[in-house]
Design a protein that fits this description.
alpha/beta, Rossmann fold, seven-stranded mixed beta sheet, 11 strands, globular, binds D-malate
Amino acid sequence: MTNSPLALVHEFLPARENTNVHTLLLLHGTGGSQFDLLPVGERLLPTAALLSPLGNVSENGMARFFRRLSPGVFDLDDLRLRTHELVQFVEAAAATYELDKTRIIAAGYSNGANMAASLLLLAPGTLHAAVLFRPMVPLVPAKKPSLDGVNVLICGGRHDEVVAPEEAVRLAELLHESNAAVSIHWSDAGHGLTSQEIAYARDWLSGKLGIKS
Ligand code: MLT
């Protein structure tokens, strides 16, 4: 469903069952699109509704969720602005599609994982849980948020050529200090996602949500 009145171009796939469902907020990587993570979302949580926006920042024609000054160096003013825009988008989407705002789970990859981490750090209360594939520390907030009861899975690649594995560890520490329940899963992989870690994340999510898979 593209070109809707909501502020970000997006795909929305309703849940197959209508009651008590979660929504997966899918956030793609640099140069990706709103279509990229739909198959991943269907694997991660088949009962969920899928809400997948297209990042509205263009870097030489590649879509992103916020500006960067150079690889790994972020425009923090833009990051704060885009994070709050995304919160507004999620709220508008929840109203439009009648989503349970207390059951929104982010699944992000690379730049999308960084945006999901920023949502956790700057807009606590937006996400019920998050699966972050190849994230970095997007920013260190002036005041640590309170993320009690929020489960976060960080999936790192031991041979990631884009994001240093220490970034995953730093982010885990920052989220842990903010009272999130954080798990890290390492793959013998580079920056690209593997089928095995998607399966791992699916089992982790089912366990946290108490869903029998
Ligand atoms: C990317 O290429 O997307 C980086 O790894 C992460 C980012 O710039 O946010």
